[in-house]
Design a protein that fits this description.
This protein has a 10-stranded antiparallel β-barrel with strand order 1-2-3-4-5-6-7-8-9-10. Helix content is about 5%, strand content about 65%. It contains 1 helix and 10 strands.
C-alpha cells in the first residue's frame, strides 16, 4: 500500500533535531512548582512519523526517559500519536488537531486525574515559535470543566 505524504506530515519536520528543554511543572495541589531540564532528539520514521526520544532530570533528581510518536492519519482527518515515559506505566494515546495558524498542534489524551481516583482529559500543546524555539504547554481539564496548566517546557534547538 503506497501513500503519498500530506502537508500535515511535512509539518512534523519542524520538530526534527536535537533540543535542550527546560520545564516548569506543578507537582500537585499545595506543592511548589519545580524546574527540570533535559535533551530531546527527534527524527522521522519514513515520511509519516516523528519519533522523539527524551532524557532528562526529573524533579526528584532521577533520570527520566520518554518516547513520543506523532503522525497524521488522513483517514481520520487528524494527528495521532503516543507517549510513554520511564516514570509511569501508562501508554498515552493522542488525537490531535492543528490550529488555523499552522503553528500550534494540540494533542489530546485521557489519563488518570491528579487525585488518582478518576480520569481526566489532557492537552499537550506544541507551539512553534521560531525555527529554533518551541513550547509545549500541558493542561488538564478539572472536574468543574476549567483547564489548569501544569507544565510548560521551552525547547531550544541544539542541532538540526
Amino acid at each position: 500500500m503506497h501513500t503519498d505524504p500530506a502537508p500535515e506530515h511535512a509539518w512534523l519536520r519542524h520538530l526534527i533535531g536535537r533540543w535542550r528543554y527546560t520545564a516548569d511543572c506543578l507537582m500537585g495541589p499545595d506543592q511548589p512548582r519545580q524546574t527540570f531540564t533535559g535533551i530531546e532528539t527527534a527524527r522521522m520514521l519514513g515520511d509519516f512519523w516523528l519519533i522523539a526520544e527524551g532524557e532528562g532530570e526529573m524533579p526528584d533528581g532521577d533520570t527520566g526517559r520518554s518516547l513520543l510518536t506523532i503522525g497524521f492519519d488522513p483517514a481520520r482527518g487528524g494527528y495521532t500519536g503516543t507517549w510513554v515515559g520511564s516514570m509511569m506505566t501508562r501508554l498515552w494515546v493522542y488525537e490531535g488537531r492543528m490550529d488555523e495558524s499552522g503553528r500550534e498542534l494540540t494533542l489530546a489524551a485521557e489519563g488518570p486525574d491528579f487525585s488518582g481516583t478518576g480520569m481526566a482529559l489532557y492537552h499537550d500543546i506544541h507551539r512553534i515559535e521560531s525555527e529554533d524555539r518551541r513550547l509545549v504547554v500541558s493542561k488538564v481539564r478539572m472536574p468543574d470543566g476549567s483547564w489548569q496548566e501544569f507544565m510548560t517546557a521551552v525547547y531550544t534547538r541544539i542541532t538540526a
